[in-house]
Amino acid sequence: MSLDGLVGGNGHDDRLRADVAPADWVWPSPAPRYNLVVIGGGPAGLVAAFGAAGVGARVALVERGMLGGDCLNTGCIPSKALIRVGRAAHAARDGERFGVAAENVSVDFTTAMERMRKTRADIGPHDSAARLAAAGVDVFLGSAEFASRNSVTVSGTEGRTATLRFSKALIATGARAFVPPIPGLPDVGVRTNETIFALQDLPERLTVVGAGVIGCELAQTFSRMGSAVTLLDMGARVLQREEPDASALVAQQLRADGVDVRLGVAIERFERSDQGRVAVLTDGTRVVGDEILLSVGRRPNVDLGLDAAGVAHTAQGVTVDRQLRTSNPDVFAAGDVIGRAGFTHAADHHARLALRNALFFGTSDVDDLVIPRVTYTHPEVAAVGLTGPEAEALPGIRAFTVPMSETDRGRTDGDAAGYCRVYADRKGIIKGATIVGELAGELLAPVTLAMTHGITLVQIASTVHPYPTRSEVVFKVASAYNKTRFTPMAQKLSRKLMDWRR
Question: Is the pTM here over 0.90, yes or no?
Fold first, then answer.
């Protein structure tokens, strides 16, 4: 990723740059041959490089932008730091119903952004070039391009080049924000997740294009911080990947937070005017903002001379088999660049799997991974496995749903919106789940554990859950499944037994 998301002269951003993109970094002398060359220093690349070096491999890592990837620099960390600010502001405004009065609640945007940058910089050393080098990894800050099936050329500043030969390589170059070819777009100066966190001032009006995960999270957050936010999307609902009930709850809260949610609309062109940056919709409506955030998808970074290495790829990413091996058996790929689950935790586990298969003749299968996902709106939406009407339509699969309002903790906290829905077969084996509500991501973790290791709803129902907690909602779902086992025949026999024992 580029350095465009950093603010020059900001102490925290300068500190981050010194860790993850040091301008004075000196390349090591390349080894004659590496056990593993990793291209990309995001979550997948870092996990693979540290892991391989830890087992004695000779490893090189190439990064053309900032170590840590999107997650550290322009994704998970900065966005969640700002989401926390939005939630704090919302809690203060919402306090009156609990008897807590807070007048004239406002957000100091400068302080909020400084906190975000400090948080990011504090995490930076964990992903730093110095830490990689201390672990025995040869770090090359520059652009990589395959020169052959078993070599990579690295190009750096001031004309520096190096050739890295390898036994195995891992492509972990991630993805970038997709910028659609809409007329006028280059002239209005739109932002993506790579540049939105470089803002110095809170936009009075913010137009967000795309009601996916990033769009919904940041639309809600900026609205809670004080921006007048308009959210535009061509789809019929927000978070279209999630089931309709979850989308409806999030849309309801977005509107309650003041976001102007406009669905089923398309942008004809962008233009500048005296009023600001304008999105002109196909019906002629003009949406004016001081800033425009584009969040309409991601595109894998495959500009690596892959043809020279015999690595097949498409617009969706590098093509891999179930062992994450590419069409070149010496080259593997992991993380967002393969166009599958675009999450940091998925990239982490992809890298571990690829490392086993590449260096230790493993046969670990990526399809065996159970990958959860979470959208950090309020309410949160967490899902894993089969979900939605498609899951319910499968033979033998039943949905068991418990509203959050049926948990006493939801009632006492005054935040009982949402539900827990688990999809299971007749034996109680979990096939998927959606949880919507406060801390939904935390509640999904034990469900993901159960799916990974074959723990059934019967076993969950037999586990003592602490009271009063939100985790009770999972217990209640499991108990709902248990009730289905008490068939009419079983009820009849039970009544006869009770009659006999009287």
Answer: yes
